[in-house]
Amino acid sequence: MEKLETRIRNHDREIEKMCNFHYQGFVDSITELLKVRGEAQKLKNQVTDTNRKLQHEGKELVIAMEELKQCRLQQRNISATVDKLMLCLPVLEMYSKLREQMKTKRHYPALKTLEHLEHTYLPQVSHYRFCKVMVDNIPKLREEIKDVSMSDLKDFLESIRKHSDKIGETAMKQAQQQRNLDNIILQQPRIGSKRKSKKEAYTIFDTEIESTSPKSEQDSGILDVEDEEDDEEGARETFENYYRKQRRKQARLVLQPPSNMHETLDGYRKYFNQIVGFFVVEDHILHTTQGLVNRAYIDELWEMALSKTIAALRTHSSYCSDPNLVLDLKNLIVLFADTLQVYGFPVNQLFDMLLEIRDQYSETLLKKWSGIFRNILDSDNYSPIPVTSEEMYKKVIGQFPFQDAELEKQPFPKKFPFSEFVPKVYNQIKEFIYACLKFSEDLHLSSTEVDDMIRKSTNLLLTRTLSNSLQNVIKRKNIGLTELVQIIINTTHLEKSCKYLEEFITNITNVLPETVHTTKLYGTTTFKDARHAAEEEIYTNLNQKIDQFLQLADYDWMTGDLGSKASDYLVDLIAFLRSTFAVFTHLPGKVAQTACMSACKHLATSLMQLLLEAEVRQLTLGALQQFNLDVRECEQFARSGPVPGFQEDTLQLAFIDLRQLLDLFIQWDWSTYLADYGQPTCKYLRVNPVTALTLLEKMKDTSRKNNMFAQFRKNERDKQKLIDTVAKQLRGLISSHHS
């Protein structure tokens, strides 16, 4: 404490010293301050005066500044209000747009607008009361859109059901126009033509549906929502399921053909129009909406439709018997397939089915041509075609490929060797080929396939249809020999024309006959078979005529008189044979010779049967003499050469059995016969002992009437003994021959 006190005293002394040192300065400062105070008072007065003047002068400025302050405040309020309105206006605009879209039934844009309103705009102004009202109203609006959309969807489904026919018809017309245009500019490259057709069809689709289902630029009139909330996803699923279910029902109705569809082409056309319209709509929906339909759904629907369509066409086309209707149906199916192919639907099965219908078409053609051939053959006069002028001659040549230098040199009038049915049949075969070619058009087949199809069908025409028609004519009961001869001549010329038919097919298909796997025409075989049948019929007909003459034979087997001339029936028969064989001059040589030989053999056989038949129990040598005259008449006919080409006595050999038998009995040369029997040089080599015995048995009780035995009338026993002896020897020959 003492130290502290000491230190305090020291500091006080220092302070006192310092104050004393600065006192004068302090006094001076006080003096200066007093002066300053006076000056300060003056300054204060000046400032007060200046302030008074300033206050007076700045009063208006203060008022103006106050007004400016209020304006700035209002400006800030207005700016804030504008900012808030800028947030609210889009909400109001979107809401107004939503109501307008709902009013005009543009449901898909309305739903998008509602989505943006709910998720983008309303959250920014959610604290306003009107926004809360909107938020509360959104579920109701969405439900309203859903209900109206479902109603419109139902209307749309009904509308496309009604308009499918028209849409399909328009699409197929456009496809037909496009095909016609393609044919015109076939050599010019085309790019995007099918797309154009598809776009045009969509335009037609929009036009047809517009009246019942309004749409925006992005909308087809059907609800389709993407990236929605769960409830919206469920609504979309409901719409999709409902749409697909209803469309499947409509598809089943469309694919059910009417029972009388096969009766007219319009029935098929309407059926196809409905199917095309249905799938044009589906394709349009696929490309203009998202999710309502997808490719898998359409592919499944098309696969089902394709199988049902093909089944219906198979069934109904099988009822069709008119080839023209089948051809028109084929063209309609091709147009149907081409139209749907434009929209990306696979149609290969349709073309495969057309190949089946092609076989049916061929059958209907064959039936039609069967009638044509029948009419031609029935109306033919079976006489060579007469021509009296060069014009007529060239007309026939133009219809049928025929060349004959000798006939060309002959003066008019002259005749072709064949009758009218040759050029007519030839031209009908060509018409049949044209008809086959028409069916092959637009089937996307190669030239080789077309050529093969035509040749196979033509072969059926020749080997089955024409062959049957010819056979029916040949087998007709009232057919005459003249007609048969003409048929043989006609078929000969038709056979020669087959090479021209080959050339004709080659020219229209551009496939050479030498090409590998090319089917050959069987026309040659057909006409040969017909000719052979006609030849056989000639032989049969001749034999029947001979039998008819032989039925007129009236022999008196018990006569004892010797005749001097041949029987009348045989003379008439020989005259008939001569006139008949005179007609055979135009036949091939072998045919005429065979016919003549066949007739002679049949005549000889029939005469032998007449002599040996059981009803003739007894006969006399006089009867044999008359029979011998008839046989000589036949031999004379054979020697006269009724048909050229026989060597010497070839034709007479037909009667050799009769000749040797009659000579044996008339000459009663039993010793020679029995002695030489079995030897190659035997005079009666052709006489069968059984035949000789049968005839001998018939003469047993009539030998007394035989002039040869007149000298033995007194010795009847010797005569009977001689016959018995010969008969016994003949029996011995027969038994030894059999053993």
TrEMBL record:
Keyword RNA-binding: no
Family: Belongs to the SEC15 family.
InterPro entries the record matches: EXOC6/Sec15, EXOC6/Sec15_C, EXOC6/Sec15_C_dom1, EXOC6_Sec15_N, EXOC6PINT-1/Sec15/Tip20_C_dom2
GO annotation, cellular component aspect: exocyst; plasma membrane
Taxonomic superkingdom: Eukaryota
Species name: Bison bison bison (North American plains bison)
Gene assigned in the entry: EXOC6B
Protein's GO biological process: Golgi to plasma membrane transport; intracellular protein transport; vesicle tethering involved in exocytosis
Positions of the UniProt region annotated as Disordered: 209-236
Exocyst complex subunit EXOC6/Sec15 C-terminal domain segment(s): 349-698
Pfam annotation, one family: EXOC6_Sec15_N
Transmembrane segment boundaries: none
Keywords: Coiled coil, Exocytosis, Transport
Coiled-coil stretches noted in the UniProt entry, renumbered to this chain: 33-60
Residue stretches of biased makeup (Acidic residues): 224-234
Keyword Transport in record: yes
Full protein name: Exocyst complex component
Exocyst complex component EXOC6/Sec15 N-terminal domain location: 3-172
Functional summary from the UniProt entry: Component of the exocyst complex involved in the docking of exocytic vesicles with fusion sites on the plasma membrane.
